[in-house]
Write a structure and sequence with these properties.
Shape: elongated
Distance between the termini: 82 Å
Number of strands: 22
Number of helices: 29
Bound molecules: manganese (II) ion
Largest sheet: 5 strands, mixed
């Protein structure tokens, strides 16, 4: 890396004139002197005056060809935090726009990512929101970070590592996502230098050692390529340069190679006039040099998510070595280097903020932000989007959809349309039926099957990986959950009211419910029902009544599970903290296939899937339930054994039962006139399998006529 001379107000003006000759420089001049005054006397870790830093940051922003407001913000970005400057002064002296930008950068600067996971999520969210609000905030932040990374050597080693890691985790991917590849590459190289100095210097040394040789070689190859293109009347700018250190390092890591084993250190670039020329040039190259299979990528037809466009190919070059070639137009080149910053256009010296509407990614961030209230979910979503590699697949009509790596037909369905996603039942990939969790590959053609009866479930979250699908499914589940909680809460309250001799219907007529809601600070009765449904408040407490006496079975049940309540035994789809009871008709055991019903005033009742009683129930009240912590919970079950009445029978059977691992909580014996004994055992068992084994053991005893599970 070559040392560039320090930035100055003159060098800023000079660069600015190259892309914005009529710029009104007065604001920059003003910001320059105000920042100089504000930072007077302050020093950096390097011993230099602090003011050097904001000037360098402003110079980077000029290199990015940004507008006056961004450059002014660069100059002022550290004044609020470290000096007596206030946002009020900035607003008066400059504009609301600039004071908001400075405020945004100041807030971002306070964010660190090396705290607890939760804090990190919240901070990331703040950053994305700031970015979505005005993308220039992140441009200034990236410039700030770039200058800090360039001067990181003056920090303590511990600090170097923390800042470099954070840069590698957060800022470099953001620069990449915004397509700002030169900033991304420089950040990555600097991170490598401070995180793995040994590797960095080894690569640097080897690259410089072979420099002369390589330059000669590169020159020769570029010349040969240029000649070849000329033969076909293609005027092109051909260049070749060493890849950035970090990409060499990644290649070494990924393929477990030594530096010497990496041949394609040089990337060649062909810049031509038009898109047609790009493909023509590609044809010439492929005709002259043997292409390496699987390495051709057409990012012109299918641009990357960050708008990057180019043709990529690898060929066996003129000297029999492998070379990588990128072909693009001048316009694509500007975008490739500067990313979305290259899109900013000037209109009478005004920043055209409408341009940000073109950046679909930023728009999507805001959409998710609205859909995902939980910062952790939001972080996860953004991270997926930030770091994932994309695949490209086709609709039956040949339309292209871009999805993250690992996407399934369900992701595709959501990419087509939210409703297609919600009702997706299956898919055909390249004409073949596949399961929903099938992983798609680039180039797949996908046809989605839908049914009006289908709707999203929590399990789908495990199948999808695109942020869009996740957000859509979560929002449906949240709505369902709210609705169910509302229904449930209303019924629980009704039940509690009935114990006081009234009912919901009667109370509704005399407005008592509204008063009850207000008394407990709910904004509406619906809110109150939901709170009850979610188990946040018990209706008995609201009404100041004693909870109803539990039934005998409930007493037994409670004593057996006093430590782990029903919540931890049963999971109810979409609802946490709900009242759960086991149906008396079929008394399900852990291991039984079960189904739940939202029942009037009793929360969710769990039946075995086979229970005939469930056939009569309203299917709309059905809810998915599952056993949790299987094997850890004891459940009560009653068995009825008919046996020949022999002396010592009770002792023998008790022994058989307890040696199978079950606990007998009560036993009742009755004998009949024909010398038969009927024994009722109440047992504690942990699973259906355990019960079945025990029954088999009992039945095989010589005196036992029958053994069966009975429902209480
Ligand atoms: Mn700074």
């Amino acid at each position: 890396m070559t040392k560039t001379p320090p930035a100055s107000i003159e060098s800023i003006y000079h660069s600015l004139a190259s892309y914005y000759p009529d710029a009104d420089k007065s604001l920059i001049t003003k910001a320059y002197s105000m920042a100089q005054q504000a930072h007077a006397g302050q020093k950096r870790e390097s011993g230099e005056p602090y003011f050097v830093h904001p000037v360098e940051v402003a110079a980077i922003l000029v290199d990015m060809k940004l507008d006056i407001a961004s450059i002014v913000t660069g100059l002022l970005h550290d004044t609020i935090e470290d000096t007596s400057m206030t946002l009020e002064i900035i607003k008066q002296e400059f504009s609301v726009e600039i004071s908001e930008l400075v405020d945004g950068v100041t807030k971002l600067s306070k964010i660190t990512f090396k705290t607890t996971e939760e804090k990190q999520a919240e901070n990331f969210r703040k950053m994305i929101i700031a970015m979505a609000k005005d993308i220039r905030v992140i441009f200034v932040k990236l410039a700030d970070r770039l200058n800090n990374m360039r001067t990181l050597e003056f920090m303590s080693q511990a600090k170097q590592k923390i800042i470099a890691q954070e840069t590698l985790d957060i800022y470099a991917p953001i620069a990449n996502r915004l397509g700002m590849s030169s900033i991304k590459m420089e950040l990555e190289d600097l991170c490598l230098r401070f995180l793995h100095p040994d590797i960095y210097y080894k690569i640097a040394q080897k690259i410089s050692k072979t420099k002369k040789e390589r330059e000669l070689f590169t020159e020769e190859v570029t010349h040969i390529i240029d000649e070849k293109l000329r033969e076909y009347d293609i005027i092109a700018l051909v260049t070749g340069r060493a890849k950035h250190f970090y990409s060499i390092y990644r290649k070494m890591e990924r393929r477990k190679l030594e530096y010497e084993q990496i041949f394609d250190i040089i990337a060649y670039r062909i810049i031509v006039e038009s898109i047609t020329e790009c493909y023509k040039a590609l044809g010439v190259i492929h005709a002259a040099y043997k292409p390496i299979p699987g390495r051709f990528k057409d990012y012109i037809a299918i641009p990357k998510a960050n708008s990057y466009q180019s043709l990529h190919t690898s060929v066996i070059g003129p000297h029999g070595e492998r070379i990588e070639i990128q072909i693009r137009t001048q316009e694509m080149h500007l975008v490739a280097e500067g990313g979305i910053a290259a899109y900013w256009k000037y209109k009478e010296g005004k920043f055209d903020s409408k341009q940000s509407g073109n950046i679909a990614w930023v728009d999507r961030l805001l959409e998710w932000h609205k859909a995902l209230q939980d910062p952790n979910e939001f972080l996860e979503t953004v991270k997926i989007d930030l770091f994932a590699e994309d695949i490209f697949v086709f609709t039956p009509k040949g339309e292209i959809k871009q999805l993250p790596h690992g996407a399934t037909p369900l992701d595709f369905a959501y990419a087509v349309h939210t409703d297609v996603g919600h009702h997706c039942t299956g898919a055909r990939v390249n004409g073949k039926m596949v399961p929903l969790r099938h992983r798609l590959k680039s180039g797949d053609s996908i046809e989605i099957e839908t049914s009006a009866l289908q709707s999203p479930s929590k399990d789908w979250l495990k199948i999808v990986c695109s942020s869009r699908a996740k957000a859509k499914i979560r929002s449906v589940i949240k709505t369902q959950e709210r609705q169910r909680a509302g229904i449930l809460g209303k019924e629980l309250l009704d039940k509690a009211l009935r114990t006081t001799g009234t009912s919901l219907n009667k109370q509704e007529k005399i407005d008592v419910l509204q008063q009850l809601a207000e008394k407990h600070s709910f904004s509406s009765t619906e809110d109150m029902y939901r709170a009850i449904g979610y188990g946040k408040i018990a209706p008995e407490n609201m009404l100041d009544i004693k909870p109803p006496e539990p039934t005998t079975m409930e007493k037994i049940f409670r004593s057996a599970t006093h430590k782990s309540d029903t919540h931890s035994i049963i999971q109810v789809a979409g609802i946490d903290d709900v009242l759960i009871r086991f149906a008396r008709c079929c008394t399900p055991l852990p291991g039984d296939t079960i189904t739940g019903f939202i029942t009037r005033g009793r929360g969710v009742t769990v039946h075995t899937a086979q229970c005939t009683k469930t056939l009569d129930m309203d299917p709309d009240r059905r809810i998915d339930v599952a056993w949790a912590n299987q094997g850890l919970i004891k459940r009560h079950v009653r068995t009825r054994i008919v046996a020949t009445d022999e002396p010592g029978l009770l002792a023998t059977l008790s022994h058989l039962i307890s040696s199978s691992g079950s606990n007998i909580t009560s036993a009742l014996v009755r004998t009949t006139k024909d010398r038969k004994a009927i024994l009722l055992f109440d047992l504690e068992v942990t699973s259906t399998i355990q019960l079945q084994k025990m029954m088999t053991t009992l039945e095989s005893h010589k005196d036992v006529i029958s053994a069966e599970r009975v429902h209480i």
